[in-house]
Amino acid sequence: MRGGDGGSRWVQDRIDRYGPVSKLSLFGTPTVLLAGPAANKFLFFSSALSTRQPRSVQRILGENSILDLHGADHRRVRGALLEFLRPDMLKMYVGRIDAEVRRHVEENWAGRGTVTVLPLMKRLTFDIISALLFGLQRGAVRDALAGDFAHMMKGMWAIPANLPFTAFSRSLKASGRARRVLAGITREKKAGRRQPEHGKAPRSNDLITCLLGLTDSHGERLLSDEEIVDNAMVALIAGHDTSSILMTFMVRHLANDDATLAAMVQEHEEIAMNKAEGEALTWEDLTKMKFTWRVAQEILRIVPPIFGNFRRALEDVEFDGYLIPKGWQVFWTANVTHMDASIFHEPAKFDPSRFENQAASAAAPCSFVAFGGGPRICPGIEFSRIETLVTMHHLVRHFRWKLCCKENTFVRDPMPSPLRGLPIQIEQRTSAPP
């Protein structure tokens, strides 16, 4: 898989020159760059470090998002989000995700000669999240929210100067509109819960309904309305970008890897053979998609959607003999360990068998960190897995494709994006029903 990831090269060049621990200035703040499995473990598990998002991200997502909380507040909000993502809950979402994917494929892929993959995947994951997390059905409100969300993302990592005509200013305004929509949904669902004729809304309805229903041992709500809106914004971004990018790069790789594609087609055809035509996928079906998920993990290893992240030292703390002063930023990046030849043999080679028995992770803890690690490991891993497996099931069974661009490169801004959004030529497979 060829890439154009200049950021990864810059980090690796710096490590080659200064070693796995070095200091620099990022976003005008003194920063320590740490690299390697031991550094990852320190970053993920040290209580002396807290997450630190750029000010632009804080302004857009809100001050109460799980990304910037630590200690008891982080455990409280994370526990609330995990209530919605419990395994028994996730099993109930498979059929609803399958319905969204089928509708998306029929409307946007079937009968088309050429499609551009990344924007389609972004809209698909947005629609899934809108339905499952917010209970927002198709229509004008969802379409408007999708437009605001796209504008919001463009200024997430911009310089936080709220001046006219800047990307950050447009992003901030779009964020305000999106927050008003989510706040309105929260008020409506809260009012619905008070109406006796509605009965008690089941927690599995959607994320906001679930969060509204959570109480502590004294019967007090765990999260305020503002905390629900802020963390719904985080869930919207976290569940949208990583999955859409993963699936886009899976399509990109499969265009030039006939052997891997054939193995995936065989896996999914065997599952389909045991189902009636049109019957929705189930959790049990997903457990049989082992090879497909290994392919996804290998894509995540080579092109992790999250380039890296920041922590902040809450106190003076030492790592590997180096003192990190209180208040300094600490920066980590996934690519350093993902492409380390001492951990992953021939790291540039695409090899899904690395994940057959999780030996890659077991041999070097905190080396495969596509979803982070420790107490802050991404709570939506299983949700992302469901989205990915269901979508790839329908794509590889119904279509074959080839890339339109001869130059198979990508850039980061800060998420990886293939050239021109990955336009492909597609044709219907004759072996699968339309």
UniProtKB/TrEMBL annotation:
Heme binds at C378. It comes from the Eukaryota. GO terms for biological process: sterol metabolic process. Keywords: Heme, Iron, Membrane, Metal-binding, Monooxygenase, Oxidoreductase, Transmembrane, Transmembrane helix. The keyword Transmembrane applies. One of its GO terms (molecular function) is oxidoreductase activity, acting on paired donors, with incorporation or reduction of molecular oxygen. CDD domains: CYP90-like. Signal peptide: none annotated. Its cofactor is heme. It holds the Pfam family p450. InterPro entries: Cyt_P450, Cyt_P450_CS, Cyt_P450_E_grp-I, Cyt_P450_sf. Belongs to the cytochrome P450 family. This is Cytochrome P450 716B1.
